[in-house]
Amino acid sequence: MANKECNTTEIEFDSGIDLYNLESEFSKRQIDFIRKTEAKKILFIGMGDGFVSDYFKKFPNIEVTTYDIDPALNPDVVGDVRHLPFKDNEFDIVVAYQVLEHISFEEFSAVLSALHQVSRDKVILSLPIRQTSLELIIKFPFVLHKDKDRLKY
């Protein structure tokens, strides 16, 4: 693959997600975002539940290729995102939702470049946002005896 210049200035971030209806809202946003690209040839990397790629397969004027490492998911092409078997500029857009968190940090840049190479126009990515919660459990190692008004360990 020949090296293409990667433009990273076009980044959109939408934090207005309804956390109570995240799964269906996320799928709707994926579909809307992809539809706006008017792409006719789409590569979906990572099958997930297949909902979004199946939606686009219903349109006869859109060619959809699915790619996943897990053959049990029945992708069109089985393979590892670190070794894409596609030609330069083969797809109008490449979509990788919830995939790149599964590769090592050291390989991340090379994978991004490879995704860019097989795309004519755009690469659409989604990475999970890790939300850390803290649960504090306090166990008191003593008992207060009512009758003696004192602590006993």
| Shape label | globular
Low-confidence stretches: 6-22
Number of E-state strands: 7
Radius of gyration of CA atoms, rounded to a whole number: 23 Å
**Percent of residues in β-strands:** 15-25%
Order of helices and strands: HEHEEEHEEE
Main beta-sheet annotation: 5 strands, parallel
Mean pLDDT figure: 78
Separation of the first and last Cα atoms:
70 Å
Strand order in the sheet with the most strands: 3-2-1-4-5
Oligomer: single chain
The percent of residues in helical segments reads 10-25%
Structural class: alpha/beta
Number of H- or I-type helical stretches: 3
Describe what this molecule looks like in 3D.
It is built from three helices and seven strands; from the N terminus they run H-E-H-E-E-E-H-E-E-E. The protein is an alpha/beta fold and 153 residues long. It has a five-stranded parallel sheet. Mean pLDDT is 78; it is low at 6-22.
Which key features would you list for this structure?
153 residues, alpha/beta, five-stranded parallel sheet, two-stranded antiparallel ribbon, 7 strands, 24% helix, 22% strand, globular
Task: Chart the SSEs and their pairings.
Elements: H1 22-37, E1 41-45, H2 51-57, E2 63-68, E3 77-78, E4 91-97, H3 105-118, E5 119-126, E6 143-145, E7 150-152
Parallel strand pairs: 1-2, 1-4, 2-3, 4-5
Antiparallel strand pairs: 6-7
What would you say about this model in short?
With 153 residues, the protein is of the alpha/beta class. 24% of the residues lie in helices and 22% in strands. It is built from three helices and seven strands.
